[in-house]
Amino acid sequence: xxxxxxxxxxTEKIIESQKKRGLDVEKQLHQILSLDFSKRSIQKKLNSIxxxxxxxxxxxxxxxxxGQHKEAQDLIKxxxxxKKSTGQLSQEFQQNQKKxxxxxxxxxxxxxxxxxxxxxxxxxVEIFNSGKIPQILNKALPHWxxxxxxxxxxxxxxxxxxxxxxxxxxxxxxxxxxxxxxxFLDQNIQAGYKEYALPILVNEQxxxxxxxxxxxxxxxYHIEKDNLYLIPTSEVPLTNLYRDSYxxxxxxxxxxxxxxxxxxxxxxxxxxDVKGLNRLHQFDKVEIVRxxxxxxxxxxxxxxIAHVKRILTLLELPFRVLKLCGGDLGFTASITYDFEVYSxxxxxxxxxxxxxxxESYQSNRLQLRYRDKHHNRHLLHxxxxxxLALPRILACxxxxxxxxxxxIIPKAVAEYTGFDSIEFSDS
Length: 427
Prior knowledge:
Low-confidence stretches: none
Strand content: 15-25%
């Protein structure tokens, strides 16, 4: 969430930058500034009245002591009347603040100057491409057909148990997924990220702090009786560990990683893009999160990008990196890089990771600050990325590494599974 101070000082810059998202926020910003002016005027009146009350309160004991009881009673009555007016003003102040907050949460983060112009995913810019597109069998099957045929994934049983988007992994494919989770976590730990085991249900305040709430796209699973939400990513609980925190410079940077199941309703998803593992309601993901001083966050973002590149290289998968344009940028992100792996059997690129810098947008909601050596307080920057999401990695491994008799496991992952291939049955 943008701070009101920043909006006051950079109104025109914000209006211009939000055009990269295809948004015109001029009217909203002027409403925010008007409410802010009104709020500060009310606060000024409250301060003035309180000062007057305090002055009289200090005088009343002196009057009583000197026998001027009538004068003291007059001041007490005046203070009583003033206190009533402060109550009304305080109520007006709170109503004003609520309206102001409602406007503020509707303004997305400011796109970074490096974010490309554009309105749709077609305007994203490829900045890196690695690996050759594999030459696979003429009769290579998409993952949903091969995995079903070999009883590696039971889509029908997932529907029976829960519904579409909840697959059941079986046997060696379940072991492969578990091996991938451990491989990703170990790679992250070796890069300096501390592992956390986290709740997968969070309260409303946690969802708001990282920007998942209000849920404008209807993606969150909500447990109404307890007013808890199933997490869409472990970014939410990881980042919220530091909600309402003042950190020391010596605490920074903070680097965290976690494996969790994740849940998204994927409202409005349909067609071939949701087949098999391409788009699920429940999926496993390993996440990395960083909390950084503002001057270090750009370098931290590049380190995270290089880290995900390294993991994908070890997986021996062809991948590319895209810099998202303004129109494809997430609400809370300042800049985002998507990683896509090529699926040879589907003949398309599949997104497997997003790495984003939120700058101070989440920190303002989180009330996450640090004190510098001069004891000045500053909002921190937050960053996060998938390292990695499991379903599409599995899909691409099944589709790219299949031959006529088996599914070949990359060497780096075989160390975690205990086998280097999954043999196919003849049935």
